Amino acid sequence: MKSYDYAYRPLVAVDCTIFGFRNGKLNLLLVRRDIEPRRGEWSLMGGFLQAHESLDEAAARVLEQRTGLQDVYLEQFKAFGAVDRDEAERTVTVGYYALVDQDEAEVQLSSDYAAHWVPITDVPPLIFDHNEMVEAALQRLRHRATHEPVGFELLPEKFTLTQLQSLYEAIFGTSIDAGNFRRRLRKMEYLQRLNEKDTNTSRKGAWYYQFVPEVYAMAKRNGADFLLKP
Amino acid sequence: MKSYDYAYRPLVAVDCTIFGFRNGKLNLLLVRRDIEPRRGEWSLMGGFLQAHESLDEAAARVLEQRTGLQDVYLEQFKAFGAVDRDEAERTVTVGYYALVDQDEAEVQLSSDYAAHWVPITDVPPLIFDHNEMVEAALQRLRHRATHEPVGFELLPEKFTLTQLQSLYEAIFGTSIDAGNFRRRLRKMEYLQRLNEKDTNTSRKGAWYYQFVPEVYAMAKRNGADFLLKP
DNA sequence: GCAAAAGTGTTTAATTTACACCCATGG
DNA sequence: CCATGGGTGTAAATTAAACACTTTTGC
């Protein structure tokens, strides 16, 4: 039974801004667009909403179809609805950003996806309003990363505090005092030090750490909250 | 020239969570729904996106058509896209919240709009996922109000510091130390004291203040930023 | 004069900041 | 033995929290 008798139905899409981290740089995963118009130009990964899925599910599906990645951190950040934003046909799109472990992602990414990582500091011109979307996604990521422990999604399971600092410096584009940064981390019981060192970058070796979601959940229930200002 | 050959086109709507402030209470403007299904039940103000307008424009139009209000603060906070959120037909809706001066709004609101203010602490069951939307809008308002000077949108042009404090207490549902609150405000040059007192609530009278956007814009360029934690 | 809201000041504790310093080790 | 990244400690400065205090004025 239909009660709404409106003719106007725009297309609805989702677009994913996919962040990765490697060698101290925050990166973005872009693809060459494979349909007209603008075939071959740089674009975020997107797709149209289907009848059987929610927006969140659509974003996860697009991500999996195009990269093979599952169970990644995904957050909606904004809907974009300018009349002419898509030159071919009116399309309202909902922007999501994803945080992936770039090392792991690389394994999944088969070459025919035509996907490429580019540093966030050097994003090429993208189709439509995608550059604007990237900017909005980054802003949201910055905010989320200061207030919630989502940064870990960009790192491997095991990471050193120096890596973590480097990540935050990349996200915020600033440099951080190592002493102060580490002191704050030391108070977070949900950051568990492992009995293993990373000896790749120094003679002394750096302890590996691990984020333990269960401990964080408990700390949160007790009123503690995550805060890492740049 | 159409390049996309997809059949699935959901309806796209916008819904407005309208906040007002009166007598120390943060309120929400609700309407009785005037179409089936769920005719007569409490609902946010919404409407369908039209061909010629952006999402932002649609939200402003819906607000004006239903309340007569123009030039109000409107911010998009989230898109909602669960498959069955609207029982009649698949509809993706984009949530906006509005901040209005309730005194001014009351003048505009003609009675046949069937609109009613209810305190945010006592929101009745709403249709579909509208209660969830209200919760999300409130969260966003709380965040915005701590980091940007948007609270003033809920007050008349001239207001006292006591009113401002009461507003923040209502937004956050906490009580605030008057001394500390005022000390922080004293440092904000863009809060200008007028040569006029409000004598309605005390024998001594309280100075009226005014928010001066130009001065704030300049302060912001110089790196100052607004911060009012609850 | 006194109640009650408006408004100021002061003391103490907690955080932040900047930096100096020690540690471990492969070459 | 020393250069280098890893890691700790601390003093000074800033900010936040709690609360005592003064001011004004209609009744």
From TrEMBL, chains A, B:
> What are the residue boundaries of the Nudix hydrolase domain, all occurrences included?
7-141
Q: Which Pfam families match?
A: NUDIX, WHD_NrtR
Name used for this protein in its record: NUDIX hydrolase
Q: Tell me the GO molecular function terms.
A: hydrolase activity
Lineage per the UniProt record: Bacteria, Pseudomonadati, Bacteroidota, Saprospiria, Saprospirales
InterPro entries xrefs:
NUDIX_hydrolase-like_dom_sf, NUDIX_hydrolase_dom, WH-like_DNA-bd_sf, WH_DNA-bd_sf, WHD_NrtR
Q: Which UniProt keywords apply?
A: Hydrolase
Q: Does the keyword Hydrolase apply?
A: yes
Please indicate if the UniProt record lists Hydrolase as a keyword: yes
CDD domains linked: NUDIX_NadM_like
